[in-house]
Amino acid sequence: MININQLIRNNIKNLQAYSSARDEFTGTEGIFLDANENPFGTLNRYPDPHQKALKAALAAIKNVQPNEIFLGNGSDEVIDLSFRIFCEPGKDKALTFTPTYGMYDVSAAINNIELVKIPLNAAFQINWDVVLPLKDDAAIKLIFVCSPNNPTGNNINNIEKLLQHFNAMVVVDEAYIDFSDAPSFINLIQQYPNLIVSQTFSKARGLAAARVGIAYGSSDIISYYNKVKPPYNISALNQEAALVALQNNQQTNVEIQTILNEKEKLIVALGTLPIVKKIYPSAANFILVAFDDANATYEKLVAQQVITRNRKSVVNNCIRITVGAPNENDALMKALQQLNNTQN
Ligand SMILES: *Cc1c(COP(=O)(O)O)cnc(C)c1O
């Protein structure tokens, strides 16, 4: 059985967490002269540092306990804190599978952690022959696996092998899970003490502007995230926005279904264009598409005010296209058809 305690940096284990005014007195009734706030106004009070209302709502929906939930200022905070909790700068390493989300690399560099990058195979799956022997590298304390993966769009298979074989924390980044048929790993947080599941309000929940990310894990692990985070990392406005988004679950589901229908339509339409060389399978709300000349296509789309993500440097001649609203997808296809006609 994996010993999670061995994976926590000593300074984090020994850290005395900041105790805020809102920690010391947790009631809601009274005259508050404890936090040096301005007594006037509507946004004048510090927010709940423990985000209790939002965690209670999430716990009910996801069938976990509130103490198995950490809320971050976007999942980007979950990624950064993961490095800070588990990896000793200049000494420990993290592992990921490329091409994938760029923040793992940036966050590793900021924290002075070596990120070992193992290329996914031609099907964008983990190359186990290369990856499994790395379990003997004791410096690898943290693994990031993104599924569905950004920018390739596919679900990653057999992630449990990482949880079973590595003496490391495994962060499964499920930013796009709501668009996928694959089951979430949330149900396995009790079974695997080294599992952290990262989700976000930024994609399917439609709250990218609010910056609310989520980590699910055993209460032991989650307690370290809570200890390390800045006390008021989620503003009152953003806690409220996320709570409202959860209450609008039905609306979110309608939007997800619309996006998935639009994706299927886009895949068919893109398939008719000679400048399109390959459309990769997608379990997310975007499609990775290989073109004759990704740079030229990208630039010509920009000229038509259609902005896509040029991933040419990551996957040969590929552009990542977010599935938009029906009129936006129509505009994309119109621009691509024009471009196709001028190039042939
Ligand atoms: C968009 C995205 C996120 C979301 O990050 P936030 O900070 O929550 O907005 C996380 N992981 C991946 C792989 C993403 O593509």
TrEMBL record:
Residues of the Aminotransferase class I/classII large domain: 38-336
Q: Which PROSITE patterns match?
A: AA_TRANSFER_CLASS_2
- N6-(pyridoxal phosphate)lysine-modified residues are K203
Q: What is its EC number?
A: 2.6.1.9
Name its co-factor(s): pyridoxal 5'-phosphate
Record bears the keyword rRNA-binding: no
Reactions catalysed according to its record? L-histidinol phosphate + 2-oxoglutarate = 3-(imidazol-4-yl)-2-oxopropyl phosphate + L-glutamate
Which family does the similarity line name?
Belongs to the class-II pyridoxal-phosphate-dependent aminotransferase family. Histidinol-phosphate aminotransferase subfamily.
Its recorded name reads: Histidinol-phosphate aminotransferase
Tell me the organism's taxonomic lineage: Bacteria, Pseudomonadati, Bacteroidota, Chitinophagia, Chitinophagales
